[in-house]
Amino acid sequence: MGHYSHLSIEEREDIMVWWKNHESISQIARKLGRNKSSISREIKRNGWTIIGVAHLCYRASTAQRKTDVRRQACKKRTLLDDPNLRARIVFLICSRHFSPEQIAGRLHLELSYAPVSCSTIYRAIHSGKLDCELPGVQSVRRRLRHRGKRRHTKHLIERRGKIRITHELIERPKEVADRQRIGDWEGDTVIGKAKGPRLVTQVDRMSGYLVGGKAASGSSADVNVAIQQALRGEVVKTITLDRGSEFARAAELQEAIGVSIYFCLPHHPWQRGTNENTNGLIREYFPKGTDLSSISDREIEAVYNELNLRPRKRLGWKCPWEVYHHQTLHLL
């Protein structure tokens, strides 16, 4: 089977001259070495009629322009062709702190098809083609959460004092590890300035749903108060903590809440990995050394809410709030 090539502008100019001289389609096709059906289709598609004139009119420049328009219309639409989608993606990255993968996954979940892939979004970001959606000379790439960098926290030395624990992790019910139910929480605190207030974080293992708030200090008494306030009204079946001194009064907390509290092994943060990962996300908003006393409860609540509404890959691009509350939201 021979290779078909589109008519060139030079060939269209020849057709225009010969057609104007009333040469037949067969004659024109023979001169150009083309199939006569190609010439017939070209004239019918790109020619036009004039009232009272039986012969179709044909002009090379008009034919070429019509062809170019049709080709452009047939091109596959890309991310950059839809200004609404483009602006929405930039908003989700810059204001909601979604990753490109979370955006692509959530679009597929809500729309039942994937209008844009994760790699397409990354290419548009790194080429600077989304920067036009930001004022001034700002860069969308600089607004990505990690900017391509990751912290490495291996080989940290535990310098905190030892505490009296309530239950070892090995005593925890096996179903907790399966993440098949709501109500198994992992807890920790996020430090701001030394000896200042701390953020209390409690994360549900199944859904990743985050609750918490600000403790007046890192003392075990203040942390206990903040944990009880955070979990009030929530489904609570177990709590898993690390061995930090802020949890020295875990026995009192266990009695107050009425559920068993389990402790990870020393230097095993992955045993409460859901919470550890969430704390890393919180650090993007409140870096180490932040004066948390100057941060209002409303600001902290807004950050926690934003994280609860961020789609997660392991949840099938649902967000923690949806899984925890068994409801569906429209996030886009």
Automatic annotation (TrEMBL):
One of its GO terms (cellular component) is cytosol. It comes from the Bacteria. Residues 169-328 form the Integrase catalytic domain. SUPFAM superfamilies: Ribonuclease H-like. The keyword DNA-binding applies. Keywords: DNA recombination, DNA-binding, Transposition. One of its GO terms (biological process) is DNA transposition. GO terms for molecular function: DNA binding; transposase activity. InterPro entries: Integrase_cat-core, IS30-like_HTH, RNaseH-like_sf, RNaseH_sf, Transposase-Integrase, Transposase_IS30-like, Transposase_IS30_CS. PANTHER family: TRANSPOSASE (PTHR10948), TRANSPOSASE INSI FOR INSERTION SEQUENCE ELEMENT IS30A-RELATED (PTHR10948:SF23). Required for the transposition of the insertion element. Belongs to the transposase IS30 family. This is IS30 family transposase.
